[in-house]
Design brief:
23% strand; globular; six-stranded mixed β-sheet; alpha/beta; Ribonucleotide Reductase Protein R1, domain 1; Rossmann fold; 3 domains
Length: 301
């Protein structure tokens, strides 16, 4: 359910929660893992991590950061203001595609008419690629508005129902507001985890799983905000296959090992030049691909 250092917060099938520690020196568990544990006095020891369906993570030159395992989907939450980075959005989507996890994009602050209008227009290319893109106006709960009632949030709840969803996004996107609206006692649970794991102020930089419903079929996993999203674990020659707009035209290339950067007879480049519409490739998206390909190629030497 949560972790800090070598301590993890485990929930048993009957709903009991306890602190567990890894058998070895280093914890190999992440939030969302299914584990086998053994009681030791008033705590427990992790004996085994069950095989994972998937693992969502990022990797840069220094370290690997694992967010969560056994996910059904990733909700990438961005905001109309401050202006979001399309490069960072693309990186999160690529990481999800690599693990065969369904991504959902939610654009917050639809109440800011002009900024939201510009941001929503930028989202057009992602809607054309087939991604689910929602507009939200997340507001903190108040005594006069205790329930989640607006249509966009209800649509989001429908997409979350019965799923385990990682909420991902940069600082300021509204993740805490979303968690607190959908999980009434999130702050209470966070404080309990903090006390149990003795993590104090560091709780805000950890990852935690919350049940949205009493039947425990719908789970939200809150993650720390990030400014960078490394993809060093992605092979540059596999990158095109993880970007839907690039992938669909890569089969039209003359050479099987085309990098889609400069080769003659490249279907991707030809499409970008001649068909920038809904079925095409925008110059901005191709630049994101080009920059990433260069970055991922350099780190291998």
């Amino acid at each position: 359910m949560a972790g800090h250092g070598r301590h993890v917060w485990v929930e048993t099938p009957d709903g009991r929660r306890l602190i567990c520690h890894p058998r070895g020196k280093k914890s190999q568990t992440v939030v969302g893992d299914r584990v086998l544990w053994q009681a030791s006095e008033d705590e427990g020891t992790i004996e085994k991590v069950e095989p994972r369906r998937n693992l969502f993570y990022r990797q840069d030159e220094i370290r690997t950061k694992s967010f969560a395992a056994n996910l059904d989907q990733v909700l990438v939450l961005i905001a109309a203001e401050p202006e979001f980075s399309e490069s960072q959005l693309s990186r999160a989507l690529i990481a999800a595609e690599a693990e065969h996890i369904r991504p959902i994009i939610a654009l917050n602050k639809s109440d800011l008419i002009e900024p939201f209008g510009r941001a929503w227009q930028r989202m057009g290319v992602y809607r054309d690629m087939g991604y689910t893109v929602l507009g939200l106006a997340l507001k903190p709960k108040s005594p006069t508005d205790p329930q989640v009632e607006n249509d966009s949030t209800q649509e989001l709840l429908g997409l979350l129902k019965g799923k385990t969803t990682l909420v991902l996004g940069p600082s300021g996107s509204g993740k805490s507001t979303l968690i607190n609206r959908l999980v009434p006692h999130a702050q209470v649970l966070t404080n309990a985890i903090s006390t149990a794991l003795n993590s104090g102020k560091h709780t805000t930089t950890s990852t935690s799983l919350y049940w949205v419903d009493t039947d425990k079929t719908t789970a939200l996993i809150d993650s720390p905000g990030f400014q960078e999203f490394g993809l060093n674990h992605i092979d540059p020659m596999h990158l095109a296959g993880l970007m839907p707009d690039i992938k669909i035209h890569s089969s039209e290339c003359k050479f099987y090992n085309c990098t889609h950067l400069h080769e003659p007879g490249c279907g991707v480049i030809l499409t970008m030049k001649n068909a920038p519409g809904a079925d095409g490739i925008s110059t901005n998206r191709h630049k994101i691909y080009s920059d990433l390909f260069s970055e991922l190629s350099q780190k291998r030497y």
